[in-house]
Structure formats: C-alpha cells, structure tokens
Amino acid sequence: MSAATDKARFFLEKSVPELKEFERKKIFSKDEISAIIKKRSDFEHKLNARGSQPSDYVRYVEYEINLDSLRRKRVKRLGIRGAGYSGQRRIFFILDRATRKFHGDVGLWIQYIEYARAQKAFKKLSTIFEDALRLHPTNADMWIYAAQYALDDHADMTQSRSHMQRGLRFCKSSRKLWLHYAKLELIYIAKLVARQRILGLDQEINAPKSTLDASFEDLNADMITLPQVTGEDINPSAGDADGVDQVALQNLESTPALSGAIPLAIFDTAMKNFGQDAKFGQDFFNMAFEFYDLPCLRKILEHIVNVLQQSRPTSHHTHICYIKLPTAGIQATSPNFPRALIASFGRLKEHRENHNVAQEVITWLQPYESAEALDPSLRKAIGATIRNAERVLHP
C-alpha cells in the first residue's frame, strides 16, 4: 500500500505548478483548489491501488474533462490571456496510463481516440491508432474505425484503403470488414462524382473492360490485388485559376477510381473467400443498392447478379437480387421508376410462391409503400404485391 501511496503522491505533486497558477490568476479560489486536490488524491489512490478497474480511469477522465471545461469558461469570462496550463495534457496522460494497464479493453481505446479527435490532436491520434491496431489486430471494428476516420477526417482514401487491406490480413473471415471496405470505396466514388458535377464535368462514365482483368486475387496473398490507381487519379493536382485541373478530373472517368473496378475486385475476392456464399452476395448487393446516384452502380449490381446466378442459381438470395435489379439507381419519384418496377414484378412471377423470396419482397417494398411522394397508382400496385407476399407467408 505504501508503494501505491508514493505513486499517488508523485502524480499529485506534478500538478502543483498548474494549481498554483490557477490560484494566482484567480481562475479557481483556494477552497476550490483544495477540493480539486482532494478529488485528484482520491482518484490517484484508486488507480494506484490493487484492484483498480477501467471504470476508475473513465470517471477520472470525466472529472478532468469537466474541470477543464469549467477552466476554459472562466478564462474566457475573466478575459485572461496566456492561461498557461490546460487539462488536455493531463487527460491524455490518464488515458495513456489506462490503455497501458488495460490494453485489452477496447472501450478505453475508443474513448482515448474520441477525445483526441475532439481535440484535433492528429499527430497523437496517429500514435494511438497504431498502438490500438497493433494490440487488437483481430478486432474488425477497430480496423473499420481507423479506415473511416482516415476518410472522414482527412479525406485520405489511400490511408483508409491501407487500413482495410491490413485488417483483412488478420480478419479475413469478417463479413462486416469486407462489406465496409467496399462501402468506403463506394462512398469515395460518390464523392468524386459529386466533385465532377460541381465542376460541370459529369459526363457518362464508361469503364474500360480491361480494368476488370485485375480484379481477382490469389487468396494466398496478403493483400487484394486492386486495379492500379495513382495519386493523380485520386487527388487531381491544381492546374487552373480555380486550383483544379479539370483535364485530370475528366480523366478520372477511365480510371478504376470511378469505374467501379475496385468494389468489384473486393466482391470477387470476398466471394472466393466465402465459398461463393449467396447470403454474402445478397448482403453486398443490398449495401451497394443504397448508392442510388453512382454511374457505375448498375455495372456493379449486374456483375453481382451474374456471379450469383452462375454459382448459386437456385438460392432465394440470388432470386431477390435478380428481382430488385431493374429498379437499381432509380428514385421512386423518377419517371423511369414505373417501367423498372413492372420489370421487377415480371421477374417476381417466377418466384412468388417461394416463402423466403416473399419475406424479402415485403422488406424491399414496404419503404416504397410509405413514401409520401409516390404516385397513388404505384402505391396501390406495391401494396397489392405486399399483400400477396403476406398471403404466401400466412396462407
């Protein structure tokens, strides 16, 4: 117990200069500083004693975050310049101690990362992610989180893709990781397409057939062999008065970045990895189906359906993808939607008595039925189709 007390005293003494400055600048009164010392002493003794828990560190961090928030408000209200000490360094120190002691607790790592993101401590974040991924290489959610962060906070698809590729080396059996990898690629395509449209470069995108030649992987390799994408393809360099090379953006149309070749490579490799599993194929189809506005969407979905029809022609997962395909990329308010829906209903006739297909049809059509802007006649037809499917399930 003496060693624990000595450690607690050591950490408390390190905060003495900070507290003296708070008192000198009248940010906190003497009584408040005494209360702060008492609270910190209690926390430090808990942390340094045997039997401490991750929740003890969490409560300590919450207290310091609230204390620092109060400090900032008072500094602003009192108009104090050069307030000196901030709570950020101390909070980072506590979180670092927590993750070192309980390195297996993913929740602590997430809290550490979230706090660093809130503080925009990007250099610190890089180190935290590196440590977290090194200690939890088989945690698919951690790889997804790191990849999402790279894309959302830094628009760095190269780093995001690297996280996903490395994650799949350790979590090859994680369906969630494969699907999220493809989803990130589709999100990125959507961003590139939006950028083209803003610049008035939204022409029809026709991918060269040769891009698919590189979409298959040797499953014994560590990384997926993706079509070649250069840095210029992904981030066209500045070239005109507006700081955008429009020729480079137009050239994106013929690259794998926009052609859909990368999501297709992920799909083909994943299907091999999961033994041409039809359920995974449908999950991939449904994930991509949500991206209404991608020029390459129909090409991707048609490829999925073709693969499923060749490998699992009798599966209800294949049937529902085939039925939904005509409506892909078409909004319910589009003048093309009625014709597409008729085509889907025509395909449904072959499988309307299949219980599994009936359940999937209900799930697919119910959101359309409740859409306010839908044409009344279409709503009536969709409602009738749903009722027929319900009768198949409950004769």
Could you characterize what this model shows?
One of its GO terms (molecular function) is snoRNA binding. It is found in: Nucleus, Nucleolus. This protein is mostly helical. Among the domains are: 1-101, no CATH class; 257-393, no CATH class. Helix content is 68%, strand content 0%. It has helices at residues 2-13, 16-24, 30-48, 54-78, 87-101, 106-118, 122-135, 140-154, 157-170, 175-198, 231-234, 246-251, 256-259, 261-273, 278-289, 297-311, 316-324, 337-348, 355-369, 376-393. The longest helix has 25 residues, at 54-78. The radius of gyration is 28 Å and the shape is elongated.
Percentage of residues in DSSP E strands: under 5%
Shape descriptor = elongated
End-to-end distance, in Å?
Answer: 72 Å
Tell me the total number of β-strands: 0
Mean pLDDT: 85
Radius of gyration: 28 Å
Tally of DSSP helical segments: 20
Low-confidence stretches: 204-221, 227-245
In this structure, how is the largest beta sheet organized? none
Which sequence of SSEs, written as H and E, runs from N to C?
HHHHHHHHHHHHHHHHHHHH
Helix content: 55-70%
Structure class: mainly alpha
Structure characteristics:
395 residues; mainly alpha; 20 helices; 68% helix; elongated
